[in-house]
């Protein structure tokens, strides 16, 4: 009699129970990169397709006496020039207004912007105005570094804060001297740096974070996706993709397919610390060689009290004030912790075991790095 075939569920259950811990860790480590895969469009961009910075100098009107003061002559001259350009005869001595502010207007001209497209603009005060709340930006040309005007901006501002003053009291939230106009500028001239896609025999992709390993992985991922040898890394920051004959007239379609190719980007092991805020950010690639860490805290407390001595009643003495100071110092007992070949998670666990705070952790990391035991780049902000 043949033995009954066991169900598909039973072998899996018995196999899971028999998996050793090291094998399970290996499986999880092999599965992790798939969750961290990124698309080509997230880590690279086409060479030649870039934005342009635009800037302009304009006026914001309609402010509730929160504009530039009379000491700001630039605001008065700008308003007079604008009025004279519109046919009004006016002199700087005749202008007395607190509802006007001189502002700088900035915007980004997208790579594929065409005439008629609308873009967002940022408006910031350049004078001594206290708030731009309720203001309206007047017609402002926006020029590029070549001096050509590529867009014009105008419209009411949106302020993410307020500034109120009354009888010497003041209440303020966020920064009322900076505003934004959503789609407040109209493109008048096309971006000269736009990419003429139909005339390209090869497409160059610029990697945002140059890395030789990432460039190689990107080229291999593209070749696998198209099942053809099309991509090759030129250096750590550029990957060149040849346009095959079938895509000569369909390069936009090819670019769209290239953007969706998944790959696993690589990065340097890096630790970023900010001593002012006590923030520490460490990547998963950080490794620590065997090292012993000792930590002890020194607390110093200085107290000062004022003592008053008064003379006896009807005495001829005077009241005397003396200052008494007390100094108290205490040192916590240090602990020695051995960190062996730790990952970032094990390092944090070991340092938390000795009760270090974020600011102390920064100094410990810098010391470990100086000892040559931290295999990572430390960046201090």
Number of domains: 3
Q: Which regions are unreliable across 5 or more consecutive residues at pLDDT < 50?
A: 1-35
* Relative helix content: 10-25%
Question: What is the average of the pLDDT values?
Answer: 76
Q: Which term fits the overall shape?
A: flat
Structural class: alpha+beta
Number of separate helices: 8
The total beta strand count reads: 24
Span between termini: 75 Å
Largest sheet: 6 strands, antiparallel, barrel
Strand residue percentage: 35-45%
Trace the largest sheet across and list its strands: 3-4-5-11-7-6
Radius of gyration: 33 Å
How would you sum up this structure, described in words?
The chain has eight helices and 24 strands. 22% of the residues are buried. Mean pLDDT is 76; it is low at 1-35. It is 23% helix and 37% strand. The protein folds into three domains: 39-48 and 194-263, 2-Layer Sandwich (Gyrase A, domain 2); 52-187, no CATH class; 271-297 and 333-380, no CATH class.
How do you describe this structure in short?
The protein is of the alpha+beta class.
Characteristic terms for this protein:
single chain; about 375 residues; alpha+beta; Gyrase A, domain 2; 3 domains; six-stranded antiparallel β-barrel; four-stranded antiparallel beta sheet; 24 strands; about 35% strand; flat; disordered N terminus
Q: Helix and strand layout, with pairings?
A:
Layout: H1 9-18, H2 21-35, E1 38-39, H3 40-43, E2 44-46, E3 52-61, H4 73-85, E4 100-109, E5 118-125, E6 136-143, E7 149-156, E8 158-159, E9 162-166, E10 169-173, E11 178-187, E12 202-207, H5 212-226, E13 231-235, E14 238-242, H6 251-259, E15 262-263, E16 270-274, E17 279-282, E18 287-288, E19 291-295, E20 298-309, E21 320-331, E22 335-339, H7 344-353, H8 358-370, E23 374-375, E24 377-380
Parallel strand pairs: 16-24
Antiparallel strand pairs: 1-15, 2-12, 3-4, 3-6, 4-5, 5-11, 6-7, 7-11, 8-11, 9-10, 12-14, 13-14, 16-17, 18-23, 19-22, 20-21
């Amino acid at each position: 009699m043949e033995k009954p075939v066991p169900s598909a569920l039973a072998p899996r259950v018995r196999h899971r129970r028999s998996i050793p811990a090291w094998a399970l860790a290996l499986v999880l480590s092999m599965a992790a990169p798939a969750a961290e895969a990124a698309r080509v469009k997230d880590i690279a961009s086409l060479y030649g397709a870039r934005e342009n910075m635009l800037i302009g100098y304009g006026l914001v009107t309609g402010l509730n006496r929160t504009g530039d003061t009379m000491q700001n002559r630039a605001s008065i001259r700008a308003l007079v020039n604008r009025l004279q350009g519109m046919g009004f005869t006016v002199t700087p001595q005749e202008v007395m207004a607190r509802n006007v502010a001189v502002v700088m207007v900035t915007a980004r001209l997208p790579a594929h912007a065409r005439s008629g497209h609308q873009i967002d603009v940022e408006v910031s005060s350049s004078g001594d105005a206290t708030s731009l709340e309720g203001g309206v930006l007047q017609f402002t040309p926006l020029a590029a570094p070549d001096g050509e005007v590529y867009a014009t901006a105008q419209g009411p501002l949106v302020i993410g804060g307020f500034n109120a003053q009354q009888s010497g009291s003041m209440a303020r939230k966020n920064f009322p001297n900076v505003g934004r106009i959503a789609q407040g500028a109209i493109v008048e001239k096309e971006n000269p740096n736009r990419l003429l896609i139909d005339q390209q025999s090869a497409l160059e992709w610029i990697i945002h974070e140059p890395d030789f390993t990432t460039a190689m992985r990107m080229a291999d991922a593209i070749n696998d996706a198209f099942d053809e040898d099309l991509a090759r890394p030129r250096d750590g920051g550029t990957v060149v993709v040849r346009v095959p004959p079938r895509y000569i007239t369909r390069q936009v379609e090819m670019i769209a397919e290239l953007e969706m190719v998944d790959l696993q980007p690589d990065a340097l092991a890096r630790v970023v610390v900010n001593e002012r805020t006590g923030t520490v950010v460490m990547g998963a690639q950080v490794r620590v060689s065997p090292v012993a860490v000792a930590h002890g805290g020194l607390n110093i407390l200085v107290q000062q009290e004022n003592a008053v001595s008064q003379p006896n009643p009807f005495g001829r003495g005077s009241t005397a004030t003396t200052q008494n100071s007390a100094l108290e110092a205490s040192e916590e007992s240090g602990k020695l912790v051995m960190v062996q070949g730790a990952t970032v998670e094990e390092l944090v666990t070991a340092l938390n075991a000795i009760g270090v705070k974020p600011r102390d952790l920064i100094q410990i990391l810098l010391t470990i790095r100086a000892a040559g035991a931290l295999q990572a780049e430390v960046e201090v902000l």
